[in-house]
Amino acid sequence: MRIAIDAMGGDNAPDEIIAGALESVELLAQDDQLTLVGPENVIAPKLPPASSRKCNVAVVDAPEVIAMDEPPIDSLRKKPKSSIPVIAKLAKRGLADAVISAGNTGACVAAFQMRMRNLPGVVRPGIAVVFPTSEGPVTICDVGANIACKPVNLYQYATMARIYSKNVLGIHNPRVGLMSIGQEDAKGNEVVKKTRELIKSDPNINFVGNIEGRDIFRGVCDVAVSEGFVGNVILKLTEGVVDGLFKAIKDELVQEKPQLSEEFKPVIRRIYRKYDYNEYGGAPLLGVNGTALICHGASRSRTIRNAILAAKKYYTNKINDKIIEYLAKTSVRTACEQVTQ
Amino acid sequence: MRIAIDAMGGDNAPDEIIAGALESVELLAQDDQLTLVGPENVIAPKLPPASSRKCNVAVVDAPEVIAMDEPPIDSLRKKPKSSIPVIAKLAKRGLADAVISAGNTGACVAAFQMRMRNLPGVVRPGIAVVFPTSEGPVTICDVGANIACKPVNLYQYATMARIYSKNVLGIHNPRVGLMSIGQEDAKGNEVVKKTRELIKSDPNINFVGNIEGRDIFRGVCDVAVSEGFVGNVILKLTEGVVDGLFKAIKDELVQEKPQLSEEFKPVIRRIYRKYDYNEYGGAPLLGVNGTALICHGASRSRTIRNAILAAKKYYTNKINDKIIEYLAKTSVRTACEQVTQ
User: What whole-number distance in Å separates Cα of residue B21 and Cα of residue A241?
Assistant: First the structure.
């Protein structure tokens, strides 16, 4: 399998990205190939001699760099030789089976959609993020690829994220919830209400109905379907609450009894490890014609290593074939066509 | 001042509501009057003899009860003699200066809007919730009154929540942020982008630009303007993350060293107290022609007591007069009219 990695993506690029790629080599097969994409004069000198590596690590030159806060579409137009459009082109030309980036999310979504195109039957791709919770992993789709969601998009996110949860996370019959503002049928805006009917009409989906913000951490569902704007707020808010709360705990502990603060450290570390998004590596852009993973901007080598392994699992488990097959079912196709007309 | 309280609202009604009302009596003036609204045969026997009370506590009979999960509009139609429509009518008839309920939020919003009507100039009311954070209180508006927000609604939420933050929370020149999915100007959906221009055009607003989910807890702003659906998810998600994290900490502590868990308890208690939404009592429905506070369904006596005090502060600080005055300014009126046409 050939995996192209954006070596310049994220706050810790290129060092952590390269380190993650090299770490993953030990866990890959001999015929797997990694391609690090970025300015060759920066990347190449950081690689160890070829003989020391089990699988191939190549460099593809991409001399330009897109910053994390550049306007996505603009940056792609102005910097066609930067790592994000270059990995997208590698996928398009069949030179990469998977692409991974921790760079500018908007630029990734735009480039991957534009170059790789959608899987047959998919109206719009969505980003699926796995939230580690004490009740198990919850896959949330979408978290920001599509901020003008229609019912057909949300329904397709339900079907795709369900396939992902089942085949990558190993959850037998994933329970699917629809993010709304109340559990009752009548709650939610028009898009939510129409989506609800659509999901309910699909007997293959183990639908638990509307869910609320708090339900994500309560073991109510394995898949949470969400409009992209809302999903993005959920993602970032959760980070903010966790950081804020740990800070508050630390401040209180120091005040209460500094020694207690020391004793508490391993507990915090264990919690961080257990509920660490780095564990899942990256978030797949479900629905593009290829394997594309987008990682957190703060990714460390471990995140990248895990993203590479996740990409391999996604690819070898033929997630995209399963999505195509599902969306091609007569009943599913008819339902989608009815709401897009 | 005359305050009407829904004695049957919330999971702990009527006992905690009545207890909260009685607790507040000690802190109110002698000429203040509380009216508990609910089935008289249930409420009256729970009150102490009149002579023991500093201010007046009356009961108004409302024999029907709206459950927490009933469809709002339906329930108001079917149960006109329940506490929520009855307190709304008391306000409408000028028999109550403020109304408070911990009951069905949707029914409260519908009844208060329908009976009390909007303040002159207000297009749609919004619920403002105060989040206690380690960086100070952040007022988020709207959290669910309006799930089909237009730019004019969001702009008015910015102006109203700013007046609230300044005059009730005592924040000198509140920094206003607009909830979006990225801090850059270009980020967000169409409603957010138009709202941004509208807020920017108002030189009286100390606008800090777009904010992301994580920023609420980072001391970036004092007021967060949000579409109602998103605000509602934020509210409930935060609850879920906090509960989930404390549960995780508890589980880890018990595993690590049970004694540590005991030592940690006062720290948790202090954090809960410090970041406790009960402290702020209730969330005002900004923009209705009256003082209306909606409390959490899980409200305890302390919440209700604090909501009563918050209602008094809202009323005596003439928040509504300040809102009317602000929205009547030529520049503000023109801006609102331009986007509503």
Answer: 32
Counting one residue from A and one from B, how many pairs have CB atoms under 8 Å apart? 164
DSSP state of B21: H
> Tell me: domain B123-280, CATH 3.40.50.10860, correct?
no
For the stretch B57-107, pLDDT in tens is: 999 999 999 988 888 899 999 999 999 999 999 999 999 999 999 999 999
Selecting from B69, B230, B240 the residue whose C-beta is nearest the C-beta of A214 gives B240
- Rounded to two decimals, the pTM is 0.94
Q: What is the DSSP string of B248-276?
A: HHHHHHHHH-HHHHHHHHHHHHHHHHHT-
Q: Which of residues 84-103 of A touch B (CB under 8 A)?
A: none
Is B232 in Cβ contact with A213 (below 8 Å)? yes
- Closest residue of B to A187, CA-based? B71
By DSSP bridging, strand A126-133 and strand A283-286 are antiparallel
List the CATH code of the domain at A1-122+287-317: 3.40.718.10
CATH topology of domain A126-280: Isopropylmalate Dehydrogenase (3.40.718)
Q: What are phi and psi of A80, to 5 degrees?
A: -65, -20
Q: Are strands B136-141 and B2-6 parallel, antiparallel or unpaired?
A: unpaired
**Coil, strand or helix at B69:** coil
CA distance B123 to chain A (A): 19
- φ and ψ at B106, to 5 degrees? -60, -40
Domain segments of chain B as ranges: 1-122+287-317, 123-280
